[in-house]
Amino acid sequence: MPPIDDGWLRLSLLQHFAYCPRQAQLTLDGVWEDNALTRQGTVAHVRVDTGPTDFRRGLTVYHSVDLASERLQVFGVADSVEQDADGNLCPVEHKHGRGAGDLRPSTVHVVAQALCLEEMTGRAVEQAAIFVTSEHRRVAIQVSEHRDETQRLIEEARAVLLGEAPAHVHPTIRLCKSCSLHQACQPELNWQDS
Question: Dmax over Cα atoms in the chain, in whole Å?
Fold first, then answer.
């Protein structure tokens, strides 16, 4: 795996950055704590991370697909990639819940996966999806609607995480309380009373 100092970003780090730049920096520095939400997410990923290629509803579903984009200098693993009979690809990000009620970080993550697939295959990827396991609900994402924001966020994350630009962090109680790193990030706050 390419290191961050070569300018490469892990796709999962991009999701952390979209949630909170401070969370991404702490994660990059090797700081991690599990909480109930991260443990639920780990359990929800067991099948998708270890499952074989399967076939359902006219789709071939590949699990744990390695992805990379030389152009964007991002890499990672897609939870699953669906391929229909016409060869159209759709990355699917599996999430236990909505992460403080906001799917934006997961949307950025799965759209970045779609951009990697486009570069790797030379074919347009029009749709991506987020499967929220706790709701048994699939949210369709139009890649074209999020392409520009995702590419901008990749460049912003790279600049911030390499120390070339300041992070613009706007913490909220809702985001911070859902974050497993709130004690490492803001140890001065009494989180039991929040």
Answer: 55
Alpha-carbon distance of 30 to 12, in angstroms, equals 14
List, for residues 32-88, the tens digit of each pLDDT value: 665 555 455 555 555 565 667 888 889 999 999 999 999 999 999 999 999 999 999
pLDDT tens-digit map of 157-173: 999 888 877 666 666 65
| CATH number for the domain formed by residue range(s) 4-193 | 3.90.320.10
End-to-end CA distance of the chain: 39
pTM of the model: 0.82
- Please say whether the beta carbons of 149 and 112 come within 8 A: no
Helix 143-161 and helix 21-28: axis angle, to 10°? 60
Q: Which two tokens stand for residue 76?
A: 């990672």
Tokens standing for residue 151: 């590419």
SS3 100: coil
